[in-house]
Amino acid sequence: MKLKPHVAVLPSPGMGHIIPLLELAKRLVVHHGIHVSFFNITTEASSAQNKLLHSHPLPPNLHVIDLPHADLSALVSEETRVVTRLCINVQESLKPLKWILIELGKPQALIIDLFCTQAFEICNELSIPIYTFFTASTAFLALSLYFPTLDREVECEFVDLPGPVQVPGCTPVRTKDLMDDAMNRKTDEYKWSLFHLNRLRLATGILLNSWEDFEPGSLKAIREHPYYKQIPTPSVHPVGPLIKEDEPLTESGAECVTWLDKQPSDSVLFIALGSGGTLTTEQLTELTWGLELSQKRFIFVTRKPSDCSVSGSFFNVGDDVNVNDPKTYLPEGFLERTKGVGLVVSSWAPQVAVLSHSSTGAFLSHCGWNSTLESVTHGVPMIAWLLYEEQRMNATMLTEEVGVAVKPAGVGEGKGVVEREEIERVVRMVMDGEEGKAMRRRARELKRSAVQGLNFGGSSYESLFRVVEEWKAADKI
C-alpha cells in the first residue's frame, strides 16, 4: 500500500501562530490525505500551547513532535522584548531540526511561519521545499514584501516620513499604523523583523490565511503589480479562513454558553483582547465604566492589568487561569452593579463558541488576525481595540475598507486613554445604531463568502488542493 505524502509543519511559539497552523495541518490530513508531522517548540511554551497540542484529540496521521528544550539563559533576560525573545528561542530550538527531518525520512515539504526562516538553510541542504504560512492579512504581506526595499531607500525613521508608505498597488499605510518593530530602526526587534521579511521571497510558495473575496485589492497587487513580479514573489495561495473550528468546553466555558442561551438574539457584546493582550489599570477602569454606562449585555474576558506592556501575557497564556481574580482589580462594585447584565470571565472564554452563538451581536477585539477571521467568519461586527504590531493595519482595513468594524476615538494613539463616554457611545452605536446594523449585514455577507471558499470546489479549497497536487507529483518523481 502506497504511503501518504508526508509534510512537516513548524510554527513559532505563541497561540496566534500555533492555532492557524494546527488548523492547516488538520485540513491537510482530513481533506487532502496528507500525513503531517507538527513540530512543537517546547522552550518557553505557554500552558495553553501545551494543552492545545497534547490534551486534545487529533486526527490520525497528524503527529505532534516536541523539539528538545533549548537553554536561553545566557541569551535573553527579563528585559528582552517579545519579538527578539521569540526569534532567539526559534534560532536555538531549530539546532536539531536537520537530524529530526532526516529521521522522519525527509518530508515532501516543510511549512513554516514568518519567524522560522532559519529553516531555509537546513532544508536547502536536504532539498526539502519550504512553504511559508503567512498568519497575518494579505495587506500586511504586501507591506512585508515591500519592506526590504523601504529599508534600503529610506534613511530616516519611518515615523518621520512626510506622508504614508506607498505600498505598490495597495492602499497607502499611515506611518502610525506600522507595526511596533518598525517604529525604531535601531532596535534588535527591527533587525530581527527585517531579517525574516527579507527571506519571504525564498519560499517555494506562500499560503495565506485569507480568501479571494476578503482582500481582493491586495491579492491582485501581489499577483500582478510589476514590483512583486521582479522580486520575484513566490506563488501566493489563499487557503483561509483557517480558524479554530471547535474546542472542548471547560466548566467556565460551559457557563458562558449557558448564559448566552438566555439572552436575546444579537444583544451581547463580547470583549476579549487576544491571547497576549493586556490593558493598563487606568484604561481597564474606563472600559468597565463605559460598559456599565452603555447598559448593554456583555461577556468580558478579563486579565490582570499591566502598566508596562500591552503584550504582557504573550509567553504565559493560560498560566493565570487559577490565580486571576477579577475582584482584585476591577473597579469596586462593578461586578455587583452589572450582575445579570454582564458576565465577567477570568482570562479565557471559548471564543469560537461565543462568536458563533446567535445572542452575540458584536465583538470588542484587539484585531489580531485570528480573532478578525473568527469574527468575520461568524458574521459578527467589531469594535477595534488595537494593541500592538500589525493590529493597527488590520483595524484600519476593517473600518475603512471592509466596513465591518468601528474604532473608538483615541484607541491605539500612543499612551492616551479612551474615556468611558467614548466607549459608551461606540458600544451603543454598534449594538443599536444604523451604522452597527450596516456592519452586521456586511459581516454576514463575508460569512457566506468564507464558508463557500472553504467548501469542496470553493476558491480556498481549490487553492490548497493545487499545492497538495504539487507535493503528490514530487512524491512520484
Topology:
Elements: E1 6-10, H1 15-32, E2 35-41, H2 47-54, E3 62-67, H3 82-93, H4 97-103, E4 109-112, H5 119-126, E5 130-134, H6 138-153, H7 188-197, E6 205-208, H8 216-224, H9 226-230, E7 235-238, H10 251-261, E8 268-272, H11 281-294, E9 297-302, H12 334-337, E10 342-346, H13 351-355, E11 360-365, H14 369-377, E12 382-384, H15 391-402, E13 405-406, H16 420-432, H17 434-454, H18 459-476
Parallel strand pairs: 1-2, 1-4, 2-3, 4-5, 5-6, 6-7, 8-9, 8-11, 9-10, 11-12, 12-13
Helix pairs in contact: 3-7, 11-16, 16-17
Core attributes:
single chain; 477 residues; alpha/beta; six-stranded parallel beta sheet; globular
Brief account:
The protein is of the alpha/beta class and 477 residues long. Helix content is 42%, strand content 13%. It has helices at 15-32, 47-54, 82-93, 97-103, 119-126, 138-153, 188-197, 216-224, 226-230, 251-261, 281-294, 334-337, 351-355, 369-377, 391-402, 420-432, 434-454, 459-476, and strands at residues 6-10, 35-41, 62-67, 109-112, 130-134, 205-208, 235-238, 268-272, 297-302, 342-346, 360-365, 382-384, 405-406.
